[in-house]
Amino acid sequence: MLCPRSPRSAQGAGSSGADLGIATTFWSITHGAGWDLTDLELLVGADAFWRRARSDIDAAQRRLFVQAMTFEGDSVGLTVAAAVAASPAQDRRVLVDAYTRFTVSDRSVNSLAGRLSPEVRAEVRSTDAMFRDLVARGVGARVTNPVGPLMIHYPARNHKKLIVADDVAYIGGINFSDHNFAWRDFMLRLEGAKAADFLAADFEATFAGKARADRISLPELSIFSLDGRTNSKVFATISQLLATAREQIDVLSAYLTFPVADALAEAVRRGVSVRLITPLANNKPLVRDYLLALAGRAGFEVRLLPQMSHLKGMLIDNETLVVGSSNFDFVSLAAEEEFVAVSESPALIDGFRQQIIEPALADALPLGAHKASFLSGLAATASLRIADVVARSARNAPRGATDWPG
After folding, report:
1. N or C: which end of the chain has fewer CB within 10 A?
2. Confidence class for position 63, pLDDT limits 50, 70, 90
3. Is 159 or 368 the better-scoring residue by pLDDT?
4. Going by C-beta distance under 8 Å and a sequence separation of 6 or more, which residues neighbour residue 373?
C-alpha cells in the first residue's frame, strides 16, 4: 500500500555554502514490508537534496559512491567533497566527467575569456586541489570519457548524476557547483537494496572504464542505464509512451530538441495538448530560440520561467512520469551516458505535479511574453541540426575512466 506523506518545506542546508533562495520540498512514498523498493522521495531544490544526502553520506558504513558531470572546487563542491572525505564508509569513491576539466562556472576554461579570467583560473586550480585532497584522504577519484585531440569526442559525455550511500541512492539532474545549486532542479532518492545495488554496479562498471546499458524493474519504477551507444532503445520506449498519450503531456527541459520534440509535435497533431516549461534565461539561448520557433509551428503551449531551470521530466496523461539525467535532446540520444526512470506511481506523480509543475507554472511569465524571430528560429534549427551530425559521429568514441589527476 502506498502511504504518501504530505510535502514539507525544508530550510536551506546551511552547509551548502550558498544562500540559494530555492523552494526545498519533498514527497515521499513508503511501501509495505517485503517490497524491493522501500521508499521514494522527490527532493525539490538543491537545499532539500543536500540536506537529505548529507545525512545519508554521514551515516554510510559500507560504500559511498558519488558521480556527477560537473563537480567544481567552489563553495558547493568543496562542501560536498568535505562530506565525502569525512564519511565513515569503508569504500569511498568519486567519478567526475572530463567536462569539469574544461568548463567551470558554466564558462569554457580554454576560451579567450576563460584564459583571461582570474576567477576561472582560480577555480580550475581549486578544483584540481580539491580532487588531489580527496585522493590524499583515501577517496578513489576518477575522470570519465576524455575528450580526445581537438575535443573531437566532446559530445560523448557521461551525463549521469548519482549518489549511492549503502542501500540509499539518488538520481536526477543536480551537479555539484554553485551555479548548478542555484538553478531550479530536483533529485529522486531511492531507498532499498535492489535499487542501490543496481546503481552501485553501474558506478563500479563506469569506475572500471566500462560503459553499461542495463535496466531494472522495481515496484512502480523502472530505471534505465544508457551507455551512450545504444541509447536509441530507451528513446524508442519514450517515443512509444508519447505515441500512446491521449490528452496531456507536460514537458520540463531547458534543452529539449529533436527527436523527442518531433514526437511531441506528432502528439499535437493527434489532438494531444502539449505544454513545455522551459527557461527564458537559458544558458543555451540557441536551444530556447529553437524551441520557441518549433512551438509556434507545432502548437505547443510554452511557459517560460524567468530564471534558469535545469528541471527535466515528462508527465504523460497524469499517469506516466519520466525523469532522470536526460534532457530529451539529440546529444542525449546520440552519445551521452544517462539515467532514465519511468514510474506510474500515483503518489510520485501527484508529488511531481504539486511540487514541480504547479509552482513552475505559478512562476512562469504570461503566455506569449517572448517570441523568437523567424530568422533566429531558423538559424537555431540549422545550427542544432549541424551539431546533431557532430554528436552522432561521437557515438563510438572511446569511453573509459582515468585516475585524477592523470
Report:
1. N
2. very high
3. 159
4. none
Determine the Cα–Cα distance for residues 26 and 5; give it in Å rounded to an integer: 9
Q: Which residue has the cell 566527467?
A: 97
> DSSP alpha helices (H): ranges in 208-279?
232-243, 260-269
CA dihedral for 110, 113, 115, 118, sign (positive or negative): negative
Predicted confidence at residue 21, as pLDDT, reads 33
> How many residues can be counted in the chain?
406
Alpha-carbon gap, residue 322 to 188, rounded angstroms: 12
Q: Which residue bears the cell 532539500?
A: 48
Structural domains of the chain, with CATH: 5-216 (3.30.870.10), 232-334+365-393 (3.30.870.10)
Q: How many CA atoms lie within 13 A of 258 on its CB side?
A: 16
For residues 234 and 308, the answer to whether their CB atoms sit within 8 Å is no
Angle subtended at Cα 278 by Cα 220 and Cα 5, rounded to the nearest 5 degrees: 35
Spatial contact of 281 and 364, defined as CB atoms under 8 Å apart: no
- For the cut 50, the answer to whether the pLDDT of residue 16 exceeds it is no
Nearest to 174 by CA among 246, 255, 57, 66: 66
CA distances (Å), origin 6, targets 21, 26, 348: 22, 9, 12
First to last CA, the chain: 50
Q: Cell 555539484 identifies what position?
A: 176
Alpha helices in 87-231 (DSSP H): 99-102, 112-116, 118-136, 178-182, 193-207
Burial class (CB in 10 A: 0-12, 13-18, 19+), 317: middle
Neighbour order of strands in the sheet with 39-44 = 5-9, 25-30, 39-44, 186-191, 168-172, 162-165, 63-68, 91-97, 140-144, 401-403
**Entry pTM:** 0.91
**CA–CA distance, 318 with 375 (Å, rounded to integer):** 36
d(CA 138, CA 99): 24
Segment 188-217 mean pLDDT:
97
How do residues 314-371 score in pLDDT, each as one tens digit? 999 999 999 999 999 999 999 999 999 999 999 999 999 999 999 999 999 998 888 8
